[in-house]
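Quick start: what a row looks like.
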Amino acid sequence: MLDDLYVVADDRPPATLRILIAHAAEVRRSNPWIYPILEAVPDLDFTARRLLDALDEDTRDLHQAAQAFALACLRAARHRWPGSEKQATTRARDRLDEVRKARKNQQALHHLRRKVTQRPLSPPPPLMPTLLETP
C-alpha cells in the first residue's frame, strides 16, 4: 500500500493517495463520540491534519505526511479496546451503523408526524348513499 504512494501516472496523484486524503478529511470532520478511535490513537487526528495541510506543499512533504497518516490508520485498525475482543475498526463500524439506524428512525418519525398533521380534520364524504338519501 505504501509503495503505491510513490506511483504517479499522468501527473495525477495515485489512487491510494486520493483515498488517504479522503479518509483524512473524514477523520477531521468526525468527533470522538462517533469515531471513538480518535481518543485511543491521538496521532490519527494530528497526522490527518498534517496530510491535509501538506496538500499545498511540495510532493516530498505530501508523501511523508501520507505515510505517517497511513501508519496511524494501521495502528488505529489494529487497536483493541481493553476488555473487548473486537478491533477498533469493528467497533467504529458498529457505532456508525447505530448512528445510521437512529438517523433513519428519526426521519421515519418525522415523516409520520408530518403525515399525521396533514391529515384532513373532517371525515371524508360517504361513497354510498345513506338510507335517507334513497328515493
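That is the whole record. Residues 1-25 form one domain. Residues 1-13 have pLDDT under 50 and may be disordered.
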